[in-house]
Specification:
The complex is a heterodimer. By secondary structure, chain A is an alpha+beta fold. Chain A has five helices and five strands. The longest helix of chain A has 14 residues, at 49-62. Chain A starts with 6 loop residues before the first helix and ends in a 9-residue tail after the last strand. By secondary structure, chain B is α/β, with parallel strands linked by helices. In chain B, helix 9 (204-211) crosses helix 11 (241-257) and helix 17 (439-453) runs antiparallel to helix 18 (459-476). The N and C termini of chain B lie far apart (68 Å). The chains are: A alpha+beta, B alpha/beta. Chain A binds chain B through residues 1, 3-7, 9-11, 13-14, 17-24, 26-28, 30-31, 38-42, 45, 53-54, 57-58, 61-62, 64, 69-75, 131, and chain B through 1-7, 9, 42, 61-64, 82-88, 104, 107, 125-126, 132-133, 135-138, 140-141, 144-145, 147-149, 256-259, 265-266. Bound molecules: flavin mononucleotide, iron/sulfur cluster (3 copies) and FE2/S2 (inorganic) cluster (FES) (2 copies). Residues 41-44, 75-79, 82 of chain A line the site of one FE2/S2 (inorganic) cluster.
Chain lengths: 132, 597
C-alpha cells in the first residue's frame, strides 16, 4: 500500500472498500430493507435455489440496489413450486413467489419490489409466519 | 461490489479466544472450502460482542443469527445446516432467560435491543486487524476532515459543544481539557491515552482496543492536531497482550497508509504514537501517577495543580484522556456535536459503556445512552437476577463507588445523578448483588482491594484503609461492636477529606454507602451477631427445625465432624460446639429442615 497523500485520495479509497462491509451494514439495518429469502431445502437446492440466490445477489450488486438484502431460509413446504423465494417489504405481509427463474427475478425486482405491483406465480400463504 | 452472500463473524476477543474461537474460524473456513463456498461466504474474526460469558460467539450476517457457546466441532453443523441449507442450528441459538425460548437473531435479543453503540460501534463488527474495514466504516474520515477543513480551535469548539465528558471516571469536560492543553505554551506537548483500566472486573477499554484499535489511533491524532502535539503515548497494562498486539498492528498499518507519521495525508501535521507498558497497579491509572510511571519513576500521584495539561510528561503540557473518551471523538466530528448532544442527558450527553457482572443473567459489556435507568440495565438488558432471586443492590464505580438499592432503580444514570445518590460513574463497572450478598462483606472486599493498592505515599490512605479493612474484618467475624460502626464513619470522613489522590479520597465510599443504605445489616452483625444474608461463616448457625425433620439420618452421615446426632425417624440436632459450619448437611437435607442463620 502506498501512502494516502490527501483527503481526496482517502475518499476514493473509502468508496472502493465500502462494499467490503455491505453484507454487514445491511444486516445491521435489516428491518429497514426489503428482504428476499431464498428457500434452501433439499428440493429447493435441487431445483436451483443456489443459482437463484446468485442471480439475485448479482443483480442487486450490478444495479446498486442497496435497499435489498438476500438471506436464506429453510424449507417452506412448497416442493412443487421450487425454487421459491419469500419477499418481505417492510410494513407489508410477506409474499412467496414460486418457480423462480432469471426472468421472474427481474420482474420481482422491477414490478413487485420497486413498484409494489403483484405478479403471477404468487403462492397463497398456507401458513402465517409464526414469529412476528 | 463484493460477491459474498454471507459473512460469518467469529468473536476474537480475549474471552472467546480463550475458549478456542480461533479454531472455530479455521474449521468454518475448511468446511466452506469442502463445500466450495469460500468465494460466497466470508469468515471474519472480530472484537468482543460483549457477551463473553456465553462465548465463543458466532454471528451470521445478513440474517443476524447469533450463536452462543460454540465449540470448534460445531463449525461443520453451522456450515452444512445454516449456510448450505438455510436451517438455523437451534441448539446453538441464544435462549431467553425468562421464556427459555431460542431467539432467532440478535435484533430480537433483549441484551441488544436497548443498547446504543457509539464507542463500541465497530466492536464485534469489523476485523480489527483490517484497516480497510475501518476505512469502510468512515474511519480516518474525521481525521481527514479535521486536517483539511478545520482549525484546531474549531475542533476544540466542536468537542466543547458536544458536551463530551471524560469516561475515565471523573467526567471532566473533554473540550475544556483540550482547550487548556492548547493554551499551555510550550515547544513540546503530549497526548496520552489512559488504558490502565485498574477497576477489578472492568474490561471496556480492553475491548475497545481489541475490537476497534484504529478509532483510538485516529482520535489521538485528532487530539494532537487540536492541542498542538506531535507525540502520543498509550499507557496500557502489560496484562493486556491481545489489546497491545492489535493496537501495535493498527499503528503500523496507519503509518503505512499515511494516517500516522510525518505529513499526514499530505498536510504539515505530523504525529507519532508509542506504547508504554504499565505494571498494573490501580493507582497508576491516576493521571499524575501514570505520568510519573512513564518517566520511569515510582507510580505515585502528586498534588494537582499543576494539572497535566499545564505540566505533565517531562514537565510538558500533556493531555490525558481515557480510551472510551477517545473512542467517541471521531464519530462526534463526523456526525457533529448537535447529533451527539441529542443522545443521553443534558449534562451528560452520549452513551456509557458498562461491564455488567455479578448475580445477573446476561453478564457482559453493554453501551447505553446516558439517562437509561438502572432498572432497564439490570432487568431488560441484563435479563434480571440469576435463579429468580431478589435484587438487593448494585455497585457502580468499582472500588471508588458505592452501592445503589431498590429505591434508586428508576434513577436515570449519568455522572451527576450517581454522585447525588452517593455513588459514582467511575469507569463503568456495575456489579449486581442479590439477597444472598452481605453488604459489610462487600465493603470489606473493596477495602481489602484499596488497602492492597494504596501506594503508601500519604498517611490517611495508607493507614486509614488498613484500619477500615480491619474494622470490617471484625464486624464480619462477629467481633464487632456498635462503637466500631461509629469509628467506621468517623474514619471514612477523615480519609475522604485528607487523602492526597483520588484513590484515597474515594476509598471509603463503599463503606459509607453500604452503611447508609444497609445500616440495619451492620447492626445485626454487631448487636445480634447475625449475618442476615447468611454469608459470614463465623456468624452462622446451622439449626435443625424439629417440625420439619423426618429423621432420615442423611445429615448425620454427611457431617464430617459428627456434630449431628439423633435417632432414626426422630428429629436430629446439631451440637454447635462441634459444628465447623461446612454447610454439607444444609445442602443435603431432603426436607430442607436445616436452617442457616
Ligand atoms: C485511583 C485512580 C485510578 C484511576 N484509574 C484510571 C484508569 O484506569 N483509566 C482511566 O482512564 N482513568 C483513570 N483514572 C482517572 C484519571 O486520573 C484521569 O482523570 C483520566 O484518565 C482522564 O481521562 P478522561 O477525562 O478522558 O476521563 C483514575 C483515577 C484515580 C484517582
Ligand atoms: S491517597 Fe493513597 S494512593 Fe493516593 S497518594 Fe495517598 S497513599 Fe497513595
Ligand atoms: S437430613 Fe434433614 S430430615 Fe434428615 S435427619 Fe437431617 S435434618 Fe432431619
Ligand atoms: S454444617 Fe457441617 S459441620 Fe456443621 S453440622 Fe452441618 S455438616 Fe456438620
Ligand atoms: S423439501 Fe421441498 S419445500 Fe421443503
Ligand atoms: S470476547 Fe467474545 S463476546 Fe466478549
Amino acid at each position: 500500500m502506498s501512502k494516502i497523500k490527501s483527503f481526496e485520495e482517502l475518499k476514493q479509497l473509502r468508496k472502493k472498500v465500502l462494499t467490503h462491509m455491505d453484507i454487514r451494514e445491511k444486516g445491521d439495518h435489516i428491518e429497514e430493507l426489503v428482504e428476499v429469502r431464498v428457500a434452501m431445502a433439499t428440493c429447493g437446492i435441487a431445483a436451483g435455489a443456489r443459482e437463484v440466490m446468485n442471480i439475485f445477489v448479482n443483480k442487486i450488486a450490478d444495479q446498486g440496489l442497496n435497499n435489498i438484502v438476500v438471506t436464506q431460509t429453510d424449507c417452506m413446504g412448497y416442493c412443487y413450486a421450487e425454487p421459491t423465494v419469500e419477499v418481505r417489504v417492510p410494513g407489508k405481509e410477506p409474499v412467496v413467489f414460486g418457480k423462480v427463474d432469471e426472468e421472474k427475478i427481474q420482474k420481482i425486482i422491477d414490478q413487485y419490489i420497486k413498484k409494489g405491483e403483484l405478479l403471477d406465480g404468487v403462492i397463497p400463504m398456507t401458513h402465517k409466519e409464526m414469529e412476528d | 461490489m463484493s460477491k459474498y452472500k454471507m459473512h460469518v463473524l467469529v468473536c476474537g476477543g480475549t474471552g472467546c479466544i480463550s475458549s478456542e474461537s480461533e479454531k472455530i474460524v479455521k474449521n468454518i473456513q475448511e468446511c466452506l472450502i469442502q463445500h466450495k463456498l469460500e468465494e460466497e461466504v466470508q469468515v471474519v474474526q472480530t472484537g468482543c460482542f460483549g457477551f463473553c460469558e456465553k462465548g465463543p460467539i458466532v454471528k451470521v450476517l445478513p440474517d443476524n443469527t447469533f450463536y452462543v457457546q460454540v465449540k470448534p466441532d460445531d463449525a461443520i453443523e453451522i456450515v452444512e445446516e445454516h449456510i448450505v441449507k438455510g436451517r438455523k442450528v437451534d441448539r446453538l441459538l441464544y435462549k431467553d432467560p425468562g421464556s427459555k425460548k431460542a431467539i432467532e437473531d440478535s435484533k430480537h435479543m433483549d441484551f441488544y435491543k436497548k443498547q446504543m453503540r457509539i464507542a463500541l460501534r465497530n466492536c464485534g463488527f469489523v476485523n480489527p486487524n483490517n484497516i480497510e474495514e475501518y476505512i469502510a466504516r468512515n474511519g480516518y474520515y474525521a481525521l481527514g476532515k479535521v486536517l483539511t477543513e478545520m482549525t484546531p480551535e474549531q475542533v476544540i469548539d466542536e468537542i466543547k459543544k458536544s458536551g463530551l465528558r471524560g469516561r475515565g471516571g471523573g467526567g471532566f469536560p473533554t473540550g475544556l481539557k483540550w482547550e487548556f492543553s492548547r493554551k499551555s505554551k510550550s515547544d513540546k506537548k503530549y497526548v496520552v491515552c489512559n488504558a490502565d483500566e485498574g477497576d477489578p472486573g472492568a474490561f471496556m477499554d480492553r475491548s475497545i482496543l481489541e475490537g476497534d484499535p484504529h478509532s483510538i489511533v485516529e482520535a489521538m491524532a485528532i487530539c494532537g492536531y487540536a492541542i498542538g502535539a506531535d507525540e502520543g503515548k498509550v499507557y496500557i497494562r502489560a496484562e493486556y497482550p491481545l489489546a497491545i498486539q492489535r493496537l501495535q498492528k493498527a499503528m503500523n498499518d496507519a503509518e503505512e497508509y499515511g494516517f500516522l507519521g510525518d505529513h499526514i495525508l499530505g498536510t504539515d501535521f505530523s504525529f507519532h504514537i508509542e506504547i508504554r507498558y504499565g505494571a498494573g497497579a490501580f493507582v497508576c491509572g491516576e493521571e499524575t501517577a501514570l505520568i510519573h510511571s512513564m518517566e520511569g519513576e515510582r507510580g505515585e500521584p502528586t498534588i494537582k495543580p499543576p494539572f497535566p495539561s499545564e505540566s505533565g510528561f517531562w514537565g510538558k503540557p500533556t493531555n490525558v484522556n481515557n480510551v472510551e473518551t477517545f473512542a467517541n471523538i471521531p464519530i462526534i466530528l463526523l456526525k457533529g456535536a448537535d447529533w451527539f448532544r441529542k443522545i443521553g442527558t443534558k449534562k451528560s450527553p452520549g452513551t456509557k459503556v458498562f461491564a455488567l457482572a455479578g448475580k445477573i443473567n446476561n453478564v457482559g459489556l453493554i453501551e447505553v445512552p446516558m439517562g437509561t435507568t438502572l432498572r432497564e440495565v439490570i432487568f431488560d438488558i441484563g435479563g434480571g437476577i440469576k435463579d429468580g432471586k431478589k435484587f438487593k443492590a448494585v455497585q457502580t464505580g468499582g472500588p471508588s463507588g458505592g452501592c445503589l438499592t431498590e429505591k434508586d432503580l428508576d434513577t436515570p444514570i449519568d455522572f451527576d445523578t450517581l454522585v447525588e445518590k452517593g455513588s459514582m460513574m467511575g469507569s463503568g463497572g456495575m456489579i449486581v448483588m442479590d439477597e444472598d450478598d452481605c453488604m459489610p462483606s462487600v465493603a470489606k472486599f473493596y477495602l481489602e482491594f484499596t488497602e492492597e493498592e494504596s501506594c503508601g505515599k500519604c498517611t490517611p490512605c495508607r493507614i486509614g484503609t488498613k484500619r477500615l479493612s480491619e474494622l470490617l474484618k471484625k464486624i464480619t467475624s462477629g467481633q464487632g461492636t456498635e462503637a466500631h460502626l461509629q469509628e467506621l464513619r468517623r474514619l471514612s470522613v477523615v480519609i475522604k477529606e485528607t487523602a492526597l489522590c483520588g484513590l484515597g479520597q474515594t476509598a471509603p465510599n463503599p463503606v459509607l454507602s453500604t452503611l447508609n443504605n444497609f445500616e440495619e445489616e451492620y447492626i445485626a452483625h454487631v448487636k445480634d451477631h447475625q449475618c442476615p444474608a447468611g454469608q459470614c461463616t463465623a456468624l452462622l448457625q446451622y439449626k435443625i427445625d424439629p417440625e420439619t425433620c423426618v429423621g432420615c439420618t442423611v445429615c448425620a452421615r454427611v457431617c464430617p465432624v459428627n456434630a449431628i446426632t439423633g435417632e432414626r425417624k426422630k428429629p436430629h440436632s446439631i451440637d454447635q460446639k462441634i459444628c465447623i459450619k461446612c454447610g454439607s448437611c444444609y445442602d443435603r437435607c431432603p426436607t430442607h429442615a436445616i436452617e442457616k442463620r
